[in-house]
Write a structure and sequence with these properties.
- The chain is built from one helix and six strands.
- The protein is mainly beta.
- The chain has a single domain, classed as Thiol Ester Dehydrase, Chain A.
- Strands 1, 2, 3, 4, 5 and 6 form a six-stranded antiparallel β-sheet that branches.
- The longest helix has 19 residues.
- The relative contact order is 0.26.
Amino acid sequence: METIRYSQLVMPQDANVVGTLFGGQMVSWMDISASKAVHRFLKNSKADAALTRAIDAIEFKETVHVGDWVNFEANIILTGRSSIVIKIDAYKESKNIEKKLACTARFTFVSVQKDKNGTYKKINHNQSI
């Protein structure tokens, strides 16, 4: 499976009280990046969507500043019957730094399908990497 890429520019509203990227914003962007990877993975399945089940082993490695770009690389590393595990690496890019690992995490998603009552139920996605 291909590496899925996604980028965000850090704006002032993304900063914490010390003027660097708020960790919660980083996690949100990583979740979006993982979602993009899962969306592509499930294109030929019966699943209607996939939902975040867990976020594991998140590690903030480098400070990211307002004006930096954050470039995400998401790779599906493991699948189960309904689960999909994605490793995401977030790299900061600035005027002086081309690519430096800023954060890494593993996300687990679960594939779901909408039933006739409008309720989403976990299903087997029948996909493999």
